[in-house]
Amino acid sequence: MFTIGLLTAVFLIVLSLLSGMVLTLLIQWYFFNRYLMKLPMVTKTDEPTAELFEIPKSLLDGCFKPEPAKALNSVLQFLFQECRNSNRVRRWFRARLSLELEELLTRTTTGKLFEAIALRELNLGTQFPNIDCIEIKHLNVNPTSGLIDDLELCLLLEYSGGFQLTIDANMRLNKTARVSVKVNELKGQGCLKFTRHPYTHWSFSFYSDPQLQLTVESQFQGRALTQINSIIASQIRKALKRKHTLPNYKLRYKPFFNKSEEGGVDDSPVVMLSGGLDVAVLQVSRVSETTGPVYCSLAVDSMAWVEMVHSETGSYLTVDVSVLKQGNSLGVHFKQEFVADKYQVCFVVESVAPYVVAEVRPGDILVAIDGKKVTSLTQISKCTKQAGDRVPLRLERRLKILPGPPSDDKLLEISGLRHRRGSGDKTDSDSSNSTSLSDSPAKKTVQETPEHKVIHRLSF
């Protein structure tokens, strides 16, 4: 009797548990069909959600006063502490210094005394430059787009970290020299500027000559030359004033922005995708002021699309051409000139031989040969000799917009409407400062030669 009663109790418990589970599921199913399934259907939206950039009102309404930068200094010192001995940072410093040494070797009169200059030792010092105070000097907000066009920060910098580098130089007549420079103190008022014109970049320069104290040690053939230490220190101060003191500055991109190298090839694997593609243009900025309409064209194609871009000083088209050699002669004569529009020394086509079939015109500015950016006439000669029968050239051509009533062709010129690249020996660049086909209206304008000063000439 006791065993039967125990089995009955277990059976009743299991039955109650199963009944409760079934009853709970039935109630949930009833409410799901009774209420949830009777709600109206909501259409599925595939449009991406994107909002435009907006500056906080507190930043616009606030007054610009000098502020201490203790928190910023702490962050910078921590990053410097952790990264100063990393391979990536040291490689970057070595690359920048090697570029400066190469410029010294190829572009200055002093460089003619040396055959090779190498960076022997690099010490980044014990600390990062300290920012005593920081102030917003200028903030320019575009009234139409609401974006920040220019931001200028005034920094009071002070450095005593002991940055040091040692350079070995092989001079003519098999002579060797060594120079060691250590920065004991650097103090001055710096200008850190971010701008979107003519394209997004940043720059840093001093407002006036900074206070600079150096320790210079020099050797020639293993013997100390204390007499020229003061001369080297003076030359360093002059170079700092010439390159990094306003109104002189250098355009920089990394680590904030990326600038694709001219002629670079993307080696990343191509991912083949199938399906539909919807593209929405959210915002267009930095459009030149024109008298006619401006069009925005989007395309996905196996061939590149190109455009013409205007600057405040002039309109330049970038043209990629392929010149066929006749023996060892290229048939193009270059000269080194100072171009006023660009405010820099450029390599300009002086004359073209009659047998040159490619579209090369006198006055064109040479940018690159076979994807390599040119920096000297010697490099032009070397790259031309190393190239094959066909020499790819990248040129910039200055255009002139004729006065008169705006025709259809001129509207295309002014607005910079994109054109598709075709085939043949002459190809158009897909860079941001490029040109269209020979039948493009932009190519039918009159050539204008900028004012310049002739420096050197080179013929091939």
From TrEMBL:
<dbReference type="InterPro" id="IPR039275">
    <property type="entry name" value="PDZD8"/>
</dbReference>
<dbReference type="GO" id="GO:0051560">
    <property type="term" value="P:mitochondrial calcium ion homeostasis"/>
</dbReference>
<keyword id="KW-1133">Transmembrane helix</keyword>
<keyword id="KW-0446">Lipid-binding</keyword>
<feature type="domain" description="SMP-LTD">
    <location>
        <begin position="65"/>
        <end position="255"/>
    </location>
</feature>
<dbReference type="Pfam" id="PF26547">
    <property type="entry name" value="PDZD8_N"/>
</dbReference>
<feature type="region of interest" description="Disordered">
    <location>
        <begin position="402"/>
        <end position="460"/>
    </location>
</feature>
<dbReference type="GO" id="GO:0044233">
    <property type="term" value="C:mitochondria-associated endoplasmic reticulum membrane contact site"/>
</dbReference>
<dbReference type="InterPro" id="IPR041489">
    <property type="entry name" value="PDZ_6"/>
</dbReference>
<keyword id="KW-0812">Transmembrane</keyword>
<dbReference type="GO" id="GO:0005739">
    <property type="term" value="C:mitochondrion"/>
</dbReference>
<feature type="compositionally biased region" description="Basic and acidic residues">
    <location>
        <begin position="441"/>
        <end position="453"/>
    </location>
</feature>
<dbReference type="GO" id="GO:1990456">
    <property type="term" value="P:mitochondrion-endoplasmic reticulum membrane tethering"/>
</dbReference>
<dbReference type="InterPro" id="IPR031468">
    <property type="entry name" value="SMP_LBD"/>
</dbReference>
<keyword id="KW-0813">Transport</keyword>
<feature type="transmembrane region" description="Helical">
    <location>
        <begin position="6"/>
        <end position="32"/>
    </location>
</feature>
<feature type="domain" description="PDZ">
    <location>
        <begin position="318"/>
        <end position="399"/>
    </location>
</feature>
<dbReference type="GO" id="GO:0006869">
    <property type="term" value="P:lipid transport"/>
</dbReference>
<dbReference type="InterPro" id="IPR036034">
    <property type="entry name" value="PDZ_sf"/>
</dbReference>
<dbReference type="InterPro" id="IPR001478">
    <property type="entry name" value="PDZ"/>
</dbReference>
<dbReference type="InterPro" id="IPR058801">
    <property type="entry name" value="PDZD8_N"/>
</dbReference>
<dbReference type="GO" id="GO:0016020">
    <property type="term" value="C:membrane"/>
</dbReference>
<keyword id="KW-0472">Membrane</keyword>
<dbReference type="Pfam" id="PF17820">
    <property type="entry name" value="PDZ_6"/>
</dbReference>
<feature type="compositionally biased region" description="Low complexity">
    <location>
        <begin position="430"/>
        <end position="440"/>
    </location>
</feature>
<dbReference type="GO" id="GO:0008289">
    <property type="term" value="F:lipid binding"/>
</dbReference>
<keyword id="KW-0445">Lipid transport</keyword>
<protein>
    <recommendedName>
        <fullName>PDZ domain-containing protein</fullName>
    </recommendedName>
</protein>
